[in-house]
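_Backbone structure tokens_
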Amino acid sequence: MLQFPMWKIALVALVCLLGIVYAAPNMFARNTFGEVPSGVPGRQINLGLDLQGGSYLLLQVDTAVVVQERLESIVESARRELRDAKIGYLGLGVHGKAAAFDVREAGDLEKARQLARGLDTGITVNTEGDRVTVELTEDAVADLSRNAVQQSIEIVRRRVDETGTREPLIQRQGNNRILIQLPGIDNPERIKALIGQTAKLTFHLVDTTASVSDAMNGRVPPGSKVLPSVDNQGPSHYVVKRRVMISGENLVDSQPSFQDNRPVVSFRFDSIGGRRFGQATTENVGRPFAIVLDDKVISAPVIREPILGGTGIISGSFSVQEAQDLALLLRAGALPAPLTVLEERSVGPGLGADSIAAGKVASIVGLVLVICFMVVAYGLFGIFANMALLLNIGLILGALSALQATLTLPGIAGIVLTIGMAVDANVLVFERVREEIDNGRSPINALDAGYRRAFTTIVDSNLTTLFAAVFLFALGAGPVKGFAVTLGIGIMTSMFTAVMVTRLFVAMWVRYRRPATLPI
């Protein structure tokens, strides 16, 4: 006998109610509800770049900078090790794609070569005459490049999320490129400024023994470098020690603030950074301490007293917006390498409006044709299937709203496809019921056997399509993901409405009408 216990009725009612609640806001204009708190029904479906319009950016990661920095780090390590080992050397520096130096005494060559081998991992050491050359292996260079791109993607994502942009698409393209799509952003200049800035924050001691004018003329003392200043109230350039006293990697928070009615940025280190900051300021009281951002000196205050709390203030000629952006950049972290904008496009909402209108027409035409076919083919039972189909569409919209998934133009195609597929399960059940009636079963037994025997076929056919949708989502990108999302959601809601909702309608009709024959 066709059974439908109360818990199933309650489950169907609950799912349908939630679907309607979450789908309802999409029937109104997007600004009707304003800002709705997270988790509260009333949030509309996010529209993708192809529907809502926005900005498209293609960035390239300058991975050569990462390799150069690694070589410079090897040079600094070599300078300390050679000095400690009392090995005389000349011409230590980065030359092309390698770090190299000349050994003064031929007897120290083997010792210098052994010392060079321990400078880093992933290196090869070669000697030619008195010259020692340290090169990175191909695998090391590939790892550096791959890690730089992956780290850049994560930092770009944090920076974009901090601006409040909803549902951005940020993904790797090729070996060293990053694709960014920002729906709803029609002026990407501020986003470009935030993304394009490396935001590498370091703290250096100022070399007070060096002359800035001599350094500008190329006479830079060993272990120092000359950097420009962005502080209009101080010198135009500073000579600072190459050694990084504290790095921005140890920052855990930065916030815009005010000091003496001027915008500043307050920062806080983690325990390791706080300890290093405290040690550096304790040992160098009375000396200027340069705060360097992307190889430009923001300010170089004199250390008046030890700073032991792990916090500090970055002051400069900031506007309020500049202080907010700098705090955001420091919170998100520094990019491992500079980013270059290769391609930039602004997509207007007109194309999206046309696409939505075309999608609506296609959905309505497909829905009408499916409804007419089901009514003609299965009569009253076709009407039950059509009612479940309409509910299925509502559940899809409700699921997209609840999950805050992004609806793209291929996603609309997935919904249209789901409309045609949604009645497949009902067709399988109804045809099985017809076969049972032809075999002489009673109406109730035919219905019960039809649903029971068709269930396995329904699950098998839908699961195979669901697996395909899962793989499309996992391995695809951009429009393919949008199609996979709506297709996957549509398959699950179709199985629910076919197995539960349509069966509930049929069970209620049988219970109250007690038919002698089935109108199918």
User: Anything to note?
Assistant: The longest strand covers residues 251-259. The first helix runs from residue 6 to 23.
